[in-house]
């Protein structure tokens, strides 16, 4: 960890953030491999080492890096101290660990093929359903990281409660998603904007958007009860983000976005299918009812053709503009300029993204 000591000796500026963040991962992983609570064999050490790198790394780390950026903005400084930097990086990695945990299990439940441009972990030879236990291990690592580095901090219990609350919301959103798309009970009449909104809010928005900012607020000594409006804005932002995701799943380039979209085959309650159901005439609806949720490439093509016929690409572009304008208005209504800056930094990272 000599690199980290040199980089953060006089504090951390934004230019160094990614470098120090990556080095912090190495330290946290080393601690997991040296955890005295379990007597690791050489084989199990190699497994955990490989499993962590395969699943925790490989993403853009936007959630984790956002903790550091948000904390710096809230503090009103360009440079964080060495301890502040390490704690912010550590909470950021806890979110990345949580993301890895969710994705490992989500890919199994969705029977997905690829993730981040490589085979899903459970599809790696000799892994299979061992991945279920790996997911559990990933979640338990979070508790151990928090205990090791935050026990004794005045906000320790609040951080534990925050992660537990967000995990519960996310798992509940996943449950709603799964039972809505349950195999053998396929019924497009159950799909509407209200159901989809609930799925998105709970499955994605809380852990992807609210959690990083909430972590930064706790680090800054704030009481989360005083930031209900901020939570609502971030959840709205997460909803907008998921609409983008649904759009890219269908219209994005798999080589560019890092995965092959399967929302149509998986019978997902996607923003696109909900919009199609609202706009389709009876003949077009019959195409949806006959083709949606089938893995046959011809059926998938029929659904995509229908989306184009209904001009859903234009509908999405209009939605994107309207969402952005509303979010900006809500953000600028916040009394704290620092909080406004945090929220705008989040929005500008995702607006008109293409992957």
Automatic annotation (TrEMBL):
UniProt superkingdom: Eukaryota
Organism: Zea mays
Cofactor: Mg(2+)
A single MF term (Gene Ontology): prenyltransferase activity
InterPro entries with a match to the protein in the record: FPS1-like, Isoprenoid_synthase_dom_sf, Polyprenyl_synt, Polyprenyl_synt_CS
Entry's family note: Belongs to the FPP/GGPP synthase family.
Record-level GO BP terms: isoprenoid biosynthetic process
Keywords linked to the UniProt accession: Isoprene biosynthesis, Magnesium, Metal-binding, Transferase
SUPFAM superfamilies, sorted: Terpenoid synthases (SSF48576)
Protein name: Farnesyl pyrophosphate synthetase
Coiled-coil intervals: none
CDD domains listed in its UniProt record: Trans_IPPS_HT (cd00685)
């Amino acid at each position: 960890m000599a690199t980290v000591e040199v980089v953060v000796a006089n504090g951390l500026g934004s230019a160094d953030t990614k470098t120090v963040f990556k080095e912090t991962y190495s330290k946290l992983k080393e601690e997991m491999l040296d955890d005295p609570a379990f007597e690791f064999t050489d084989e199990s050490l190699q497994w955990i080492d490989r499993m962590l790198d395969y699943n925790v790394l490989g993403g853009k780390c936007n959630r984790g890096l956002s903790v550091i950026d948000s904390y710096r903005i809230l503090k009103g400084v360009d440079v964080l101290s060495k301890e502040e930097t390490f704690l912010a990086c550590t909470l950021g990695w806890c979110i990345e660990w949580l993301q890895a945990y969710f994705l490992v299990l989500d890919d199994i439940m969705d029977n997905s093929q690829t993730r981040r441009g490589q085979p899903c972990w459970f599809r790696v030879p000799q892994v299979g359903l061992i991945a279920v236990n790996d997911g559990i291990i990933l979640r338990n690592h979070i508790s151990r990281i928090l205990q090791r580095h935050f026990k004794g901090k005045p906000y320790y219990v609040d951080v534990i409660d925050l992660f537990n609350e967000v995990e519960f919301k996310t798992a509940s959103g996943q449950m709603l998603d799964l039972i809505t798309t349950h195999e053998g009970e396929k019924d497009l009449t159950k799909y509407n904007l209200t159901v989809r909104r609930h799925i998105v809010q709970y499955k994605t928005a809380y852990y992807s958007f609210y959690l990083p900012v909430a972590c930064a607020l706790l680090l800054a000594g704030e009481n989360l009860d005083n930031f209900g409006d901020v939570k609502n804005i971030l959840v709205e932002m997460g909803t907008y983000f998921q609409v983008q995701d649904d759009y890219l799943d269908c219209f994005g380039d798999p080589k560019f976005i890092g995965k092959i979209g399967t929302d149509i085959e998986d019978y997902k309650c996607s923003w696109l299918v909900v919009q199609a159901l609202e706009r389709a005439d009876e003949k077009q609806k019959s195409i949806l009812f006959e083709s949606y949720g089938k893995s046959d490439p011809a059926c998938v093509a029929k659904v995509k053709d229908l989306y184009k016929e209904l001009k859903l690409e234009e509908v999405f572009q209009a939605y994107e503009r309207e969402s952005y304008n509303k979010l900006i208005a809500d953000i600028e209504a916040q009394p704290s300029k620092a909080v406004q800056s945090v929220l705008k930094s989040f929005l500008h990272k995702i607006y008109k993204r293409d992957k």
